[in-house]
Amino acid sequence: MLIKLLSYIIPIKIFKTKSKLSKTIEVTWVNGELVMDSENTNYSYGSLQRILRIGLKHFGFDKISKMNHALVLGVAGGSVIKTLVDEIHFKGQITGVDIDQDIIKIANQYFKLDEIKNLNIVIDDAFEFVLKTKDRYDLIIIDIFQDMNMPNFLFEDFFINRICFLLQSRGVVLFNTMCLTAKDNLRNKKLIKELNDENYKIESIPRVEIHNELIIIQKQN
User: Which residues of 103-116 are buried (b: 16+ CB within 10 A; e: fewer)?
Assistant: First the structure.
């Protein structure tokens, strides 16, 4: 495809729209790869896919491939779902939750998410979803951004405790955060310190792609 080859020389934007919740959304060919971006940051594929792949590799592709149910909070274009399906060969159920129906329509059109047979997409607020769900999950991926901002509820004790409650025995949480300021760094340190007890193993991978920090929570029993 000519446009794909040309994208190695210069990024080629093929779609742009405005979403009520996510504001500007663009789909662009970059270095032979189709990516989704918001106004100021990468939303899916590209650097974001690399960031979450690092976290999944840290835990182990082999372990993840044997899991039964994964929950993805914040789907956007679905790059981490594609990593699970195409690279890890995850055969279990994947539940993807996103509040923005417009983004999911774009993901289906350009990234073919609706062709993944073991994926169920739920249009809902992540906070509301985790309150309502009666399922338990082996893997929970939290990747929720509004452009470069992270909603405050993600770092509230109630939300984190609920997420941990939803884990199966030996389940794992992969939480992608962005640290742009000293305040953000302190926020993450506080979260890690408060969760660091005998029931959970907490690890962090700082400065992934410069501004991201991955927090990994593993339930010990």
Answer: bbebbeebbebeeb
What 3-state class would DSSP assign to 28?
strand
Phi, psi of 108 (to 5 degrees): -65, -40
Q: What is the DSSP letter of 198?
A: T
Q: Residue 22: which pLDDT band, with cuts at 50, 70 and 90?
A: low
Range of lowest pLDDT (21-25, 46-50, 164-168): 21-25
- Token couple for 69: 């149910």
Q: Which of 64, 57, 25 is nearest to 208 (CA)?
A: 57
Helix, strand and coil in the chain, % to nearest 5: 35, 35, 30
Q: Can you name the residues that pair with 74 across neighbouring β-strands? A: none
Phi, psi of 216 (to 5 degrees): -115, 125
Rounded to 5°, angle at Cα 103 from 110 and 118: 70
Q: Which residues on neighbouring strands pair with residue 123, listed in sequence order?
A: 98
pTM as predicted:
0.92
- C-alpha–C-alpha distance, residues 63 and 168, integer Å: 14
